[in-house]
Write a structure and sequence with these properties.
By secondary structure, the chain is α+β, with helices and mostly antiparallel strands. The protein has 2 helices and 5 strands, in the order βββαββα. About 25% of the residues lie in helices and about 35% in strands.
Amino acid sequence: MKREMVRLAVQVVPNARKSEVAGEVEGVIRIRLQALPIEGRANEELVRMLAKLLGVSKASVEVVQGQTGRRKLVEIRSNMDLDSVRKMLLGD
């Protein structure tokens, strides 16, 4: 199967009670993270969470834009296309 590279726009809310996908706003997936935005901890939690939810390795998930902001662009290397990734995260 061909490996796809999917770019996903996310908006994170750090320091949440638990890490979870919180829906979609204007085409951007909102994700609450149970991590403080200090020393890259929130980015690490985002990568860990997305890898677990999508069934890929942490090495297959990378924050490629917005490392220090709430809006981020995440690159996911897997056998899924963008629609499949969004369905897995949003439960559509």
